[in-house]
Design a protein that fits this description.
Length: 123
């Protein structure tokens, strides 16, 4: 793989293990976001599904994680993003959603990186 710019979906726990506690979900989002800047500085375009899903959830009137609107938007947006991404960076931690992202990425022949240092241009 060349060192050209890749659009990389960052996948990892967001809701998993939080008991739907918004403080813990926000903490998980910050962990996902912690690798976005290094990816950007390496010349890549980082994406996190929640960056797109959370405003959509607010606009659609979702009242809590796991409601019908949440299920309509949160995980399907990652699937749509994968259709536009070049790779996935899977961060550690149990997550059915992130595992599904990895499964879909592999099915589509996309590279899946397990750590930041494996991404071209990152150290």
């Amino acid at each position: 793989m060349s060192n050209s710019s890749l659009m990389i979906l960052i996948a990892g726990p967001y809701r998993s293990g939080t008991g739907d506690d918004p403080v813990l979900m926000e903490k998980n989002l910050r962990v996902l976001e912690s690798v976005a800047l290094p990816l950007y500085r390496a010349g890549h375009i980082p994406l996190i599904g929640e960056w797109i899903a959370l405003p959509l959830l607010r606009e659609a009137g979702s009242s809590r994680p796991g409601d019908a609107i949440y299920d309509e938007i949160l995980y399907p947006i990652a699937n749509r993003l994968l259709g536009r991404c070049d790779a996935v960076l899977r961060l550690p931690g149990a997550s059915k959603g992130a595992d599904e992202d990895v499964r879909l990425a592999k099915q589509r022949g996309l590279p899946v990186f397990e750590k930041l240092a494996d991404v071209p241009g990152c150290v």
